[in-house]
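Regression test case RT-17, inverse folding.

Input:
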């Protein structure tokens, strides 16, 4: 997966904030491997306070369960790097912080594999209500390359691109 240039990410992030404002939507972020980078990218945009509800950096597995409501049995059985964990993180942070959209990242940035999951395996998720009380989501599995910083940066790009597609209806989200 190619990373975005330094010039394109701020433009994308500003367009995302504008789209959230235009749709009268809000976003909450649940992060693991990105450690706060997703929320930092969003809040770097002037006007973000109108739509960014907050974030939970759930780096520890027990925080995913205890704060975000990720099923503890799921975490025990398969670890923190799974599509269903990303899905539950996105829904959990959306509910916890009262946002219309929740996004999440979980994965292995390296330098070593984790729980038999290879470096570069990442799941990103977006969650929202299609209609009141009808939750829907989109989860993507990524196999990224590069060093730890590159994998984390690509993960930020991927989850923000996913949210952009979900909000604007562009692409196949």
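Golden output:
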């Amino acid at each position: 997966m190619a990373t975005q240039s330094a010039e394109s990410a701020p433009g994308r992030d500003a367009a995302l904030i504008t789209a959230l404002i235009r749709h009268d939507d809000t976003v909450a972020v649940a992060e693991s491997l990105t450690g706060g980078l997703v929320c930092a990218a969003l809040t770097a945009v002037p006007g973000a306070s109108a739509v960014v509800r907050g974030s939970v950096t759930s780096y520890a597995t027990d925080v995913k369960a205890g704060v975000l409501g990720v099923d503890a049995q799921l975490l025990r059985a398969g670890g923190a790097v799974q599509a269903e964990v990303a899905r539950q993180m996105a829904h959990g942070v959306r509910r916890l912080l009262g946002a219309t959209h929740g996004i999440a990242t979980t994965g292995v940035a390296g330098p070593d594999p984790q729980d038999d999951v290879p470096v570069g395996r990442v799941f990103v998720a977006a969650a929202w209500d299609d209609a009141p009380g009808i939750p829907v989501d989109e989860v993507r599995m990524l196999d990224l390359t590069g060093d730890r910083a590159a994998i984390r940066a690509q993960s930020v790009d991927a989850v923000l691109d996913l949210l952009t597609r979900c909000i604007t209806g562009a692409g196949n989200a």
